[in-house]
Design the sequence.
């Protein structure tokens, strides 16, 4: 069991050099160890900027980020970011790709034990010797997840890593990533445009507004155990989030609804069918 990190941002704002874009206003935020938090909002509202600052890849123009009480000034293998592209090396096998983080961090002595362990976690135990080019997009994203988990991160930062996947694969990965992070106690911060994805994965969602990026609303999603879009509590959280999104983005409800994949509005969804089988 990993102990997820406690994250605090104090007066964090960010202005990009050159063009002078004020990407973030003033963000004061606390994320508990092991919590799953979604950042949701329209394109350009500063979600990726905030995620980069939480990782230490960017430093805020003002304010600071504390991780377990210590100010961060650089990236760390204990805070891993995942992006839309799985970024695997096509000439390497699954297990070689999963071992890359360990190799770069001088931990290859752990590879023999860690690689099979994390491949089991992402349900690719039988794929260790396979070439990654022979895997589906969803399986490749699972390899990238295994590579991140091999480093025993305290924080996992996801920047829309599932947005290129089909609805069925996406639902399965949403469920599995949440489950794995909860089992291992990892703090999860997830950027998404998809309201349904936020309800599937997060304990709490922050709705952001743009110009400059700021937190406009906070919605708690207290659904225990695995989540299904057909659950009444799921529908309630989704409606609350759509209303907050509508208010933050200044858009009509119909437009906000378009951020919910259509398949999730009708039951049974792929996830419901998966659970039924
Ligand atoms: N490197 C950069 N230089 C200058 N401005 C930038 C840079 N990166 C982002 N911005 C600007 O900062 C603002 C926030 O960008 P950011 O990428 O954080 O938004 P986002 O919410 O992640 O958007 P999307 O949903 O489209 O990914 C935008 O106005 C963007 O144009
Ligand atoms: Mg972004």
Sequence:
């Amino acid at each position: 069991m990993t102990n997820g990190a406690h994250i605090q941002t104090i007066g964090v704002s960010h202005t990009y050099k050159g063009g002078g874009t004020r990407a973030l206003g003033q963000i004061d935020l606390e994320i508990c160890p092991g919590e799953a938090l979604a950042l949701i909002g329209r394109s350009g509202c500063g979600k990726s900027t905030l995620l980069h600052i939480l990782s230490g890849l960017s430093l805020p123009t003002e304010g600071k980020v504390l991780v377990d009480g210590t100010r961060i000034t650089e990236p760390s293998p204990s805070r891993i970011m995942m992006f839309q592209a799985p970024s695997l090396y096509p000439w390497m096998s699954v297990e070689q790709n999963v071992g890359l983080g360990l190799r770069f961090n001088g931990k290859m002595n752990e590879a023999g034990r860690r690689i099979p362990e994390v491949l089991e976690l992402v349900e690719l135990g039988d794929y260790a010797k396979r070439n990654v080019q022979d895997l589906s997009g969803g399986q490749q994203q699972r390899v990238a997840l295994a590579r991140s988990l091999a480093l025993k991160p305290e924080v996992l930062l996801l920047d829309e890593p599932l947005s290129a996947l089909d609805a069925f694969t996406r639902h399965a990965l949403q469920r599995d990533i949440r489950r794995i992070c909860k089992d291992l106690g990892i703090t999860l911060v997830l950027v998404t445009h998809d309201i349904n994805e936020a309800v599937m994965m997060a304990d709490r969602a922050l709705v952001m507004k743009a110009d400059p990026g700021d937190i406009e609303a906070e919605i708690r999603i207290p659904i225990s155990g695995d989540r299904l879009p057909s659950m009444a509590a799921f529908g309630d959280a989704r409606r609350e989030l759509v209303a907050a999104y509508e208010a933050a983005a200044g858009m009509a409800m119909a437009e906000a609804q378009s951020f919910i994949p259509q398949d999730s509005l009708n039951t049974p969804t792929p996830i419901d069918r998966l659970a039924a089988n």
